Amino acid sequence: MKVFLVGGTGLLGAMAAKIFIERGHKVTAVALPGVPEGADIPKEMDLHFCDINKISDDEVKKLIKGCDAFVFASGIDERVECPAPVYDWYDKYNIKPLERLIPMCKEAGIKKAVVLGSYFSMLNKDEYWFKTMLPKGILERNPYIRARVKQEEVVASFVDDKFDAAVLELPYIFGTQPGRQPVWTILIEQIKGMDKLPFTMYPGGGTAMLTVRQVGQAIVGATEKIDGQGFKAWPIGMYNMSWKQFLKIVYNARGMENDRKILSIPAWVMRLGTKGIVKQYKEKGIESGLDVNYLPYIMNQYLFIDNKYAKELGVEEDDINAAIYDSVKVSVAVVNGEAKLIGMRGE
């Protein structure tokens, strides 16, 4: 199988490319210029440096010629700060490229596509209990969730009897790529402000998790297995962990006491601390993809995923504790000014 991959040097795209090649597949990829120093980018990958959103249709058609599958491992998530209205940025990087590229892929004879999405889209689905536990208006209040739901709708709209597609609803992901800044610097900056307190206040919920390698396995597995299945939205998670369990690992990686007291606080208390964040966003002209006044209610849920879906795609066990530890260590180095790495871009 020959795969056309958007985001070939990204944290997840590069891992997927490596696994595709290990399994005997060929990969043609595009990525923005600038490879993170020391990143493990497969030499066997046919890599083209360009902005997929700016090159011409003819240039895209040359790249996808002879390919069998399309993988979109690109876009931005809720942790990227964008000027208001933030939905327009999600539309630009996560939705519009698919509306343009998938029809060209179908015209070129590509039979299937796999798109990386977010498990936040599950919060708007009636089949999951999450939705019943949250205040009404989740899409109206949270542009990022609205954009991820729209992304799935766009992908599903192209499916027919000759074209299959899947969106992988991914939770929080841990692991590092040499030369690239982890997204977890935001967490380190947040909890660092409580270091002088005898305890850390944090929501009482939890989340599903994956390692970077497991995401790569899920991408490859979905690409291999999607044939004849129409449209699939796979919720992918291998491990479920409370925030309290997670923070114990974080503090260990920071070299702090292992018995750090973590206080699980209710949503209404957490909201008292969001006023300063709202003010900062207004001063910067930034709009959050997740409404900071609504976020406490989301984070107080146990957003867990049954790992049967991941296992269905061939995802294997990995060391999630080590992946968290490594992600935090690098994030701390960035926050302390000890490392200057490439941050997240539209890939």
In words, what does this structure look like?
- This protein has 347 residues and is α/β, with parallel strands linked by helices.
- It is built from 13 helices and 15 strands.
- It has helices at residues 11-22, 57-64, 86-107, 138-141, 143-157, 185-192, 212-225, 243-253, 267-272, 275-284, 295-299, 308-312, 320-335; strands at 2-6, 26-31, 46-49, 69-72, 82-83, 112-118, 164-170, 172-174, 199-203, 206-211, 231-235, 239-242, 261-265, 286-287, 302-303.
- Strands 3-2-1-4-6-7-11 form a seven-stranded parallel β-sheet, with helices on both faces. Strands 8, 10, 12 and 15 form a four-stranded mixed β-sheet that branches. A two-stranded antiparallel ribbon has the order 5-14.
- Strand 1, helix 1 (11-22) and strand 2 form a beta-alpha-beta unit.
- Helix 3 (86-107) packs parallel to helix 5 (143-157) and helix 8 crosses helix 13 (320-335).
- The two termini are 23 Å apart.
- The mean pLDDT is 93.
Q: State Rg.
A: 20 Å
Proportion of beta-strand residues? 15-25%
Low-confidence runs: none
Strand order of the largest sheet: 3-2-1-4-6-7-11
Distance between the termini: 23 Å
Helix content: 25-40%
**Coarse shape:** globular
Total beta strand runs: 15
Main beta-sheet annotation: 7 strands, parallel
What pattern of helices and strands is seen along the backbone? EHEEHEEHEHHEEHEEHEEHEHHEHEHH
Please work out how many helical segments DSSP would assign: 13
Quick check: average pLDDT?
93
What structural class should be given to the helix and strand makeup?
alpha/beta
